[in-house]
C-alpha cells in the first residue's frame, strides 16, 4: 500500500530466518524489488545459499533420550519412545561445531535476490549424495546459510545443488581473499543468533568412513501459516532408509 514517488536505488532488508527460509519474509523483498527498484539498483543482501550436512551429536542424544534410562538411579525407560518422538518432531535451533559435521555440506538452494521469484519459493527440492568422513552415528542433519552483499552480476558463489565439495571450498577461499562482504552461520564460523537448525532422527544411523549417504530434501511453506515450514527428508545409507517429515512452527 506504500506510495513511493520514484523508483529506489537500494533495498536493504534483514529477511533471513532460521535455516534462511523460516518466517517467509523473502517474498516481501521480492515484491518490493519488482515494484520499486530501479534498473541496476542494489538489493542487500544480494545472494543467499542454504547448506545442509549430516551431523553427529551423541551428547545431545544422550541428554534428551538415553537420559530416561537412568534418572538418578530410577529406570524411566518407558518414556524413551516419547522422548524420541519429541526430539525428532520439530527442527531444533542450537549451536553445533564443525566437529559435529561428518561430511562436506551440500547446497540445498542458492538464491539470487535479483532474479529469484515467489513461485520458486513455494517448493524447494534437492537431491544429495555425500560421503561420511568418519565412523560415527548420524543423529540428524544440520542446516545453515550464508548471505553476500553484492551487485546483480557479482555473486562469488553461484553454487547449485550439484556443486562438489571442492567447488564449495575453492569459492570460500577465493571469497576470503577478495573484498566480498559475507555473513555466515556455518558451524565452523563465529556463532550468530541464527545458530544452526538440526533435523534429529528418532534413532541414530551408524555409518563407516567413506560410506555414501544419499537422499532428498523438500522445503515448502505451511498452507496453514506461510511463515512456518514443512520439511520432508529422505535418507539412505546402504541398508538403512529413513523418511521423516518435520514441521517448523
TrEMBL record:
Pfam families listed in its UniProt record: PRMT_C
Keywords, sorted A to Z: Methyltransferase, S-adenosyl-L-methionine, Transferase
Domain (Protein arginine N-methyltransferase) ranges: 47-152, 178-237
GO MF, any single term: histone methyltransferase activity
GO biological process: methylation
S-adenosyl-L-methionine is among the record's keywords: yes
Protein name, per record: Protein arginine N-methyltransferase domain-containing protein
Species whose genome carries this gene: Aegilops tauschii subsp. strangulata
Lineage: Eukaryota, Viridiplantae, Streptophyta, Embryophyta, Tracheophyta
Amino acid at each position: 500500500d506504500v506510495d513511493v514517488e520514484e523508483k529506489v536505488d537500494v533495498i536493504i532488508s534483514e529477511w533471513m530466518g532460521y535455516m534462511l527460509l523460516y518466517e517467509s519474509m523473502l517474498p516481501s523483498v521480492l515484491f518490493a524489488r519488482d515494484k520499486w527498484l530501479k534498473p541496476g539498483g542494489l538489493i542487500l543482501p544480494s545472494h543467499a545459499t542454504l547448506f545442509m550436512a549430516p551431523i553427529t551429536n551423541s551428547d545431545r542424544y544422550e541428554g534428551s533420550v538415553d537420559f530416561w534410562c537412568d534418572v538418578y538411579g530410577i529406570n524411566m525407560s518407558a518414556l524413551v519412545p516419547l522422548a524420541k518422538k519429541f526430539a525428532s518432531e520439530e527442527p531444533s535451533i542450537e549451536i553445533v561445531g564443525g566437529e559435529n559435521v561428518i561430511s562436506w555440506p551440500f547446497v540445498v538452494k542458492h538464491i539470487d535476490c535479483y532474479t529469484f521469484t515467489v513461485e520458486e519459493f513455494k517448493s524447494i527440492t534437492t537431491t544429495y549424495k555425500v560421503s561420511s568422513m568418519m565412523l560415527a552415528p548420524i543423529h540428524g542433519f544440520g542446516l545453515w546459510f550464508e548471505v553476500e552483499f553484492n551487485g546483480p552480476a557479482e555473486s562469488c558463489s553461484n553454487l547449485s545443488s550439484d556443486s562438489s565439495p571442492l567447488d564449495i571450498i575453492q569459492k570460500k577461499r577465493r571469497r576470503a581473499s577478495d573484498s566480498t562482504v559475507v555473513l555466515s552461520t556455518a558451524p565452523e564460523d563465529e556463532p550468530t543468533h541464527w545458530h544452526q537448525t538440526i533435523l534429529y532422527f528418532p534413532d541414530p544411523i551408524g555409518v563407516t568412513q567413506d560410506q555414501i549417504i544419499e537422499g532428498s530434501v523438500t522445503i515448502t511453506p505451511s498452507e496453514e501459516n506461510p511463515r512456518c515450514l514443512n520439511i520432508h527428508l529422505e535418507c539412505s545409507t546402504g541398508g538403512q532408509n529413513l523418511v521423516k517429515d518435520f514441521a517448523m512452527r
